């Protein structure tokens, strides 16, 4: 059974810093991996999708990497801003089941002005 | 990006009543939609896969008679919580994947409180 773990559970950094969020998964046979952002009491916003054959994806200040063999992904946020404060969720797409996602517990990020 | 609309965003109901939550893909067709449940400060747990025109597939431990799913069209799936109890109080989120694509888009979520 696939398990997804995110470290750290919470992170607080000053504005302007670059930071890295970590995600690990136990079964390397994945379909894809997605990073999401969730604001308190809200739904999820898709940030980046990495196919199983890809190594990384970039969107603006965000860069996500994928190392399937070691079961790891990182989300790099450059020049952090207070508006980046949210919970970031990593989710792995099940190779067997029609893109079902298994989620990590998230990293709660706070960017201090 | 694609838009998924979920309604209502919040609902309070009395114990023993049923509540229906709608999930609509506004600008694309979705053969498959998914329903998740999120407990406070926990991650999302997949409840069921909703397939247009056929029966939903439920994850282990999810009561299909309690959580009724109907995917009657390519743009609408509904989740009905029947005979709701306080332990059903939770945040329910749907997602949809455009037919032929891979990226999942999520609704805004529904906060259900059963009193």
Please give a structural write-up.
The complex is a heterodimer of chains A (113) and B (115). In chain A, strands 2, 4, 5, 9, 10 and 11 form a 6-stranded mixed β-sheet that branches. Chain A is globular, with a radius of gyration of 13 Å. In chain A, 0% of the residues lie in helices and 59% in strands. In chain A, a hairpin with a 4-residue loop joins strand 7 (62-67) and strand 8 (72-77). Chain A has no helices and 11 strands. With 113 residues, chain A is mainly β. Chain B is globular, with a radius of gyration of 13 Å. In chain B, strands 2, 4, 5, 6, 9, 10 and 11 form a 7-stranded mixed β-sheet that branches. In chain B, strands 1-3-8-7 form a 4-stranded antiparallel β-sheet, with no helix packed on it. Chain B starts with a strand and ends with a strand. Classes of the chains: A mainly beta (113), B mainly beta (115). The A-B interface holds A 4, 31-32, 34, 36, 41-46, 49, 51, 89, 91, 93, 97-106 and B 1, 4, 6, 32, 34, 36, 42-46, 49, 91, 93, 95, 97, 102-109, 111.
Number of DSSP E strands of chain A: 11
| Structural class estimated from helices and strands of chain B | mainly beta
Low-pLDDT ranges of chain A: none
Strand content of chain B: over 45%
In terms of structural class, how would the helical and strand content of chain A be classed?
Answer: mainly beta
According to DSSP, the number of beta strands of chain B is: 11
Amino- and carboxy-terminal Cα gap of chain A: 41 Å
Q: Please identify the oligomeric state.
A: heterodimer
- Gross morphology of chain B: globular
Helix percentage range of chain A = under 10%
Strand composition percent of chain A: over 45%
User: What's the story with the biggest beta sheet of chain A?
Assistant: 6 strands, mixed
Rg calc of chain B: 13 Å
Mean pLDDT of chain B: 91
Query: What does the largest sheet of chain B look like?
Result: 7 strands, mixed
Q: How many DSSP H or I helices of chain B?
A: 0
């Amino acid at each position: 059974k696939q398990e997804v773990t995110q470290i750290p559970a919470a992170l607080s950094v000053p504005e302007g810093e670059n930071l890295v969020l970590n995600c690990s998964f136990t079964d390397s046979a994945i379909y894809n991996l997605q990073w999401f952002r969730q604001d308190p009491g809200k739904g999820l916003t898709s940030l980046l999708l990495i196919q199983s054959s890809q190594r990384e994806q970039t969107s603006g200040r965000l860069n996500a990497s994928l190392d399937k063999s070691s079961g790891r992904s990182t989300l790099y946020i450059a020049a952090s801003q207070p508006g980046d404060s949210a919970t970031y969720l990593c989710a792995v797409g099940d190779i067997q089941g029609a893109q079902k996602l298994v989620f990590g517990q998230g990293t709660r990020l706070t960017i201090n002005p | 990006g694609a838009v998924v609309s979920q309604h209502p965003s919040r609902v309070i109901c009395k114990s023993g009543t049923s509540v229906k939550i709608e999930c609509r893909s506004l600008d694309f067709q979705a053969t498959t939609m998914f329903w998740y449940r999120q407990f406070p400060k926990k991650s999302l747990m997949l409840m069921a896969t909703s397939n247009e025109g056929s029966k939903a597939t439920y994850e282990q431990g999810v009561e299909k008679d309690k959580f009724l799913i109907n995917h009657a069209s390519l743009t609408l799936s509904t989740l009905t919580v029947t005979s709701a109890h306080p332990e059903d109080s939770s945040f329910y989120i749907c997602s949809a994947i455009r037919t032929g694509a891979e990226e999942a888009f999520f609704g805004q979520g529904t906060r259900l409180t059963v009193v």
